[in-house]
Amino acid sequence: MKTKILNEVAKLWHIAWPVLIGQLATVGMSVADVAMTGHLSSQDLAAVALGASLWSIILVTVMGIMIAINAVVAHEVGASAFDKIPHIMRQSMWMAFGVGLIACLLLNLSTFVFNYLQLEPVVQAKASEFVHVISIGMPAFAMYRALYSYTTSLNQTKPVMVIAIIGLLFNIIVNWLFIYGKFGLPQLGSTGCAWATGIGMWLMLGSMLWWTHHAPVYQQTFPFTHREGPKWSEIRSMLKIGLPIGVTYFAEVSAFCAVGLLVARFGVVAISANQIALNFSSLIFMVPMSLGIALTTRVSQTLGEGDVVHARFVSWVGVGVSLVIAVFSATFMTLLRYQVAAAYTSDPAVQEVAASLLLLAAIFQLSDAAQVTLSCALRGYKVTRVPMMIHILAFYGVALPVGCALGLAPEWMPWHPEKPMEASGFWIGLVLGLTVAAFFLCIFLQRLSSTRIAYHFKSQNA
């Protein structure tokens, strides 16, 4: 059994490690935005924090929808039905283009929320401009993630890593030029971050298209050999899988971003500290997230082969590995929280609040790692609606209500602290919400995998 577990861990890690580096590089763009504007002014940092809250909600929702392609293509890979993949991908690109355009429109409309947050006029103007500019990258991002799912399903994850690193380097260089106004360029501050990221998304799409066109490994399944119009019936079948994943991602990320928007009423220090804690937590989250992407691929491929028993084994190995990693992540965040805060900002007040939030982030590492890998295992089974409902319950039924009770301490609630706990209260709510999600997802995966095995053997014996 030990050898079997180690072999599966090796297979997961073979897929996951390039994805991890790629995910870290992608999130590194956001880290660079926050860190570089943080050393320019607190107003620019607050603008990026607020703008990134809206951008992240739409971005991650689109990412979730595109994950459906991973499950569908990986299943065909497991079944050795490679001839079906080019057609699937052509329809996937049409789906991605449409989703990207809708996301761009929604992102621009979402800036109206700033009118109700009692923001400083300068911060509101900067945040709105950030969102309008960065939205140009949304269609490119959606199509890039479709190709991302395609190459990951073929176990080709190194392109993802290389292209993400190129995107990060581009982002840092253009940030430096535009934020600070180097070589005679205008000093754009937070808007410079938006231009760098938006243009970078198109660069990454172009790089992925070039790679899939020239690398020999894609010849058998290359989707762009001829033109093909959109077929709604097939796009709809992928959306049935992808939309619940998108809603799941929306529920989680919007809860975190809603915290950022609600914290805005406590001033620039609270906004900036919350964004630092959220940004670094997102960076650490990429480890279990990358493992989860590999897990979706492995579970889908195994089910495509018809081995339901091994699919359950793969699922629980992935969850176990993520929990081990989470222990190390929590320890790291606890011991080095002050150093992390200082790396983002030189403001002592922001550093102190950020360090306290990072301690709470360390507490939810185990439940966060568990819930993401459990969700990804379920996506390998092409089951997405129940996990969606679990996440909605966890974040909107637990995390945000508890966070509002502790953070805002409204007098009309039956129980609340004597004075608002501000950002810390909201993060305690997030800890509870993630724990609830992990608990119910664990129960559901166990029941689903057992039911599939029982049905499989019953069919064989019939």
Automatic annotation (TrEMBL):
Residue ranges of the TM segments: 12-32, 52-73, 94-118, 160-180, 192-211, 241-264, 276-297, 309-333, 390-413, 425-445
Membrane among keywords: yes
Pfam family for this entry, one: MatE
Keywords: Antiport, Cell membrane, Ion transport, Membrane, Transmembrane, Transmembrane helix, Transport
Cytoplasm recorded as keyword: no
Major location (coarse): membrane
GO molecular function: antiporter activity; xenobiotic transmembrane transporter activity
Domain of life from the UniProt record: Bacteria
GO BP term (any one): monoatomic ion transport
Subcellular location: Cell inner membrane
Stored InterPro entries: MATE_fam, MATE_MdtK, MdtK-like
NCBIfam families: matE
Protein's UniProt name: Multidrug-efflux transporter
Lineage: Bacteria, Pseudomonadati, Pseudomonadota, Betaproteobacteria, Burkholderiales
